């Protein structure tokens, strides 16, 4: 295998620097504090990681990220921009998958050679597009190419996607030390194929220690959000709900920023305490929650141990856990106040720095001893946060298979309002004194009640939750909101509060997390800038189109049309064009019109062997044929065919129940969106009245009829509907209605007769251009990491005229190879082109090409066939990690030499122009040269004449 380095020092950052950073980071230890509450009803545990890494120059923590992306058919659905107040919703033709790919490109752009990225897609099956590879410059380009090639397919096999995504970490385990492992799963629907019989959570638990945290993202409103939350929770990850296209970017940005600011992973808190305290968690049921266990042995008092799984810890963001004394714990504590031994709580924090090594931090606290007081507002905030999480968790109870039941019915409206009132009044954070001075307390108030509600509103005698504008209240008091987005959003919000992670710019509560982490803020801002700076994704849909496979289905349907004009269209979703634009911008009488499967009605009589009243495909119309118009028969002047690829077309008219060759019920007309048709008594654009929209690949046809001053004579009957032809004369009449005006859009037509017989047209040039580009990419991917071309010599162009120029030759001569010390049989195997027929006719060309070979040889990387048995000439192992180039020609280009004897001078050094102009000066010089004899003779004669006079 042959690789080329960009420079000799590339890749040096991947050696000692990374290991030293890991060693420095391992020296940092989180701080653990135990705070018995003054109310003597519980215990607050604060785990404070370092604010930032010791190495302040560290741009981000290296990560191993696997993107597990749903490419089922529904991912091809339209993703319009969220509707703003007072503005119409805009649809730019982007699908959900287009935006997900854009977010994936953002992640790729912010990674460097210390990070690795893998890609898995899943539909009816899963496919590993890319294993975990370092994000070098070359690998980034290959990754972006693989992301671009994603296309919507069929079903949703979530389990295989997760399984294969986790499998990539096992395959790359040898080089994963020092990187944060994470699997990012995005889906827009419920899994419907190959689901585990025993359930997802039991299957994940059989894997024992998962190699990475799983972070799930649910897009849209057709989700099993309870399953996504449970999958994330069981692995220590986070679940994020993405309601619309406007949230895709912020969800991915915050998820990756949290990963890039991770201090430790697989953190676990173990508390050992006297059993009579009966400590219990206060955040409700969760799939990762573990029950306390009693410890045996010869100890003075019965001890219990509670294990709390914390997952990842972020730099600068504390983890605060409020535990309550359960049952008679509070009373027992008072009884034991004078007893011995004292009630000691021991907290052991175990965590990893992305390596198998387990680090720990230990602290002890006497519950009855003296301790530094905490801010009452902070205590109120954490107690209220836990109560809010518990309330939200109670709405989505756990099922026996470990999945949260988001389809669990809400309590009656009256009861839910009573519960919200009771919750608001019971939260200590909603005290007006705390709300005015503590940002965390205010954020909880905004989440529940909204920013427009006065702080004192919830403490009055008659608070009304239906007037609250907080997202929690809106999602619970309105049944429509709850069914549409509340049951998906509330589990995501509860998870963000429980793990204290910022998952979006939107919600006030999670937004305060990470505010004290400089590394998180820097990573988030960098990702945000990258997301906005990247070129906008190319739309894959006609604005408003639904369904990702319409182009394929329609193409096949038009190609295999059934007798009688029926088009077999299976699986095309109903939709209308979502973006209503002014018709005057789309009145294009010269645009292409009908799909190739359209049937045109001929005029009466016999024409070219066609019987009276028969139908003919629009592609079979020819010059001179007579078609039916509202003003009688008209002859065809020209039929214009245009090749298109994935062009947007619309279905208008018809009942979809079949068709009749005699003008009866038909399946409708497939026509371009802005080509007027006569429907419901008026001329309308198909975009405004479309029943369906689709992508079409093939030929579309336009028809030009003979000239007529009557505009209605420029319409034909196509698939049972009147549609205009070229030069129709329909223009905008104002207020969205068309008017009949002049008929001079095509003043003259000089079309050659029967030109198709004498020329061969290549209409699919754009398509072939795409094909060639994809072929080049496929070749580069197939030979990677080898370059796609070979090293060639620099030679002079033939002929005297071009001999001063240089270009790449066919191959190096044998003399050049010998002078460079490269055997002629070895050269072709290491990417060097050889031409044994070529001779060196000058020492200059020989020296240039020998030097070219030596430079190539110095930057060459030759991998041994067997890594454990290197041979002579193979590159040492420590030099095999350099970045590579994809094109030798780009690295070893051809520089045009400056011809000897010539030097470049500035304009000021050039001689001044000839007075009067060069033309006059040259003409005068030629005249002087031609008339020199005549003038001499004339002067001589004149002199002799003057002498004779004397």
Automatic annotation (TrEMBL):
Protein name stated in the entry: 60S ribosomal protein L13
Gene3D superfamilies: 1.20.5.110, von Willebrand factor, type A domain (3.40.50.410)
Keywords of the record: Ribonucleoprotein, Ribosomal protein
Gene Ontology cellular-component annotations: cytosolic large ribosomal subunit
Annotated GO biological process: translation
Record GO terms (molecular function): RNA binding; structural constituent of ribosome
Entry-linked SMART domains: VWA (SM00327)
Source organism: Canariomyces notabilis
Region Disordered, residue ranges: 1-20, 864-893, 930-950
